[in-house]
Amino acid sequence: MLNGIEGVLLPFTIPYLGLLVAVGTFAGIYIGAIPGLSVTMAVSLLISFTFSWDTLSALALMIGVFVGGVYGGARSAILLNIPGAPAAIATSLDGYPLAKKGLAGETIGIATVQSVIGGLVGVIIMVTATPLMSKIALSFAPRDYFLVGTMGILLVGSMGSKSTAKGIFAGALGIILGLVGMDPFTGVGRFTFGSLNLLGGLSYVTAMIGLFGVSEALFQLRDLNKPLIKQRISKIVPSWNVITKYIPLTLRSSIIGGIIGALPGTGGDIAAILAYDNARRTVKDNDVDFGQGAIEGVIAPETANNAAIGGAFIPMLTLGIPGDSVTAIIIGAMFIHGLRPGPLLMQDNPDIFWYIVSSLIISNIFLLVFGLMGIKLFTRIIDIPREKILPSILILSAIGAYSINGSYFDLIMVVVFGVIGYLLKLYGFPIGPIILGMILGPVIDSNFRRAILSSGSILNLIMELFTNSITLILMVIIVYFLVYSYLQKRR
Fold first, then answer.
1. Residue 190: enclosing H or E segment and its boundaries?
2. What is the pLDDT of residues 11-63, one digit of tens each?
3. Domain range enclosing 370
4. In Å, how far are 242, 250, 483 from 121, measured between CA atoms?
5. Looking at the 3D structure of the chain, how many domains does it have?
6. pTM recorded for the entire structure
7. 106: buried, middle or exposed (CB in 10 Å: 19+, 13-18, 0-12)?
8. Which has the closest alpha carbon to 305: 353, 256, 352, 343?
9. Which residues pair with 386 in a beta bridge?
10. DSSP 128-180
């Protein structure tokens, strides 16, 4: 058995392991940038592809794809207002308006650097806070996850719209759409209207492609005669002054991302929401309002969702509980290769822990290189005339939707969601809360029902909300957000 130091040096002493991390990072960037090709899908395909490989090689490629894919979703979010992944939804709120001002190259450059910083801080959190954060995550009860999901809906209700009511309506609509399908407790169909196709539920990836991609194409059809915005791509790498100016925001967002990532079942999308909301509430001297092209609205979510990667490995390695969907797949891969994630892994195979740490650091280094290299090519997308790019968006949206399950029903739904998204945009309703509501809806529903079952009755559950320390802290945070939002609206 190797010790920790030897585990750290493995990607450096065995060159092909470092090369696999680089290849995975490069592939992840471009997979993440294509709506419909999720990081989860890519890593799951790698299980069968790397089945006959040795453990270290398989982990190297998966970690590279994981890191690159989380960042890659920001590119299409900034350039086309089509997030490549749910974690990039918050990025699109200010990233796309910046691109419309001709600042796509500079915005992606800042997003790249901030993603790398967030990723490295997440690794530091993973190394230093593993024991403490794993204990906190282990002590979370179903009622606590219910409150975390509720908090997420309340936060997204105020994102991307001047009207909180419209934002909350969009979030509530997303929850309802997320509950479509077979009830996981009773097996009874909910909101299926007798359709067999709806028994499996609505894919949030299909909804995301339709609500963002198709609706954006339909919305821009109204502006075909408007002149194209010339992108300034001479300045890509942000100056040192810009990076240092936002260090406080970067550190706050990184800590938020690392902590949220360590909570099982959360992931980078919720981390990005919380970091964006924190920035919106705490940044006072920004030159541009949030939602209109504030660079802080790109820095916060991009830093947080990459920091959440390191956090997601904490419960996976120490408890055998996945931090998000990708680490859930990596757990399966580790079992296939004879490893048992959990407390004994840290005791029996410390080299694996340090090897993962080292691979995450190397992947972030390659992310900086590959991320900055391809920006000029990516920004050319916006310079393509609308009458050529819009059909391409629709075709890519159709391919992305069909590739999820190989179902024609998904093609129909992507069109339906596209029309719904167009109408919502027309009347000023935000789109992001719908997708996030679809993701958080099942979390809220299942954990609320588990909380009632474990408490015995709703009355006992209400009592527990005020007698458990973690639950009480979450309740105080939710009340604070509500009061703060109300006072902010009054001002």
1. strand 189-190
2. 788 888 999 999 999 988 887 777 656 677 677 667 667 777 888 888 899 89
3. 4-490
4. 18, 10, 32
5. 1
6. 0.70
7. buried
8. 256
9. none
10. HSHHHHHHHHHT--HHHHHHHHHHHHHHHTTSS-S-HHHHHHHHHHHHHHHT-
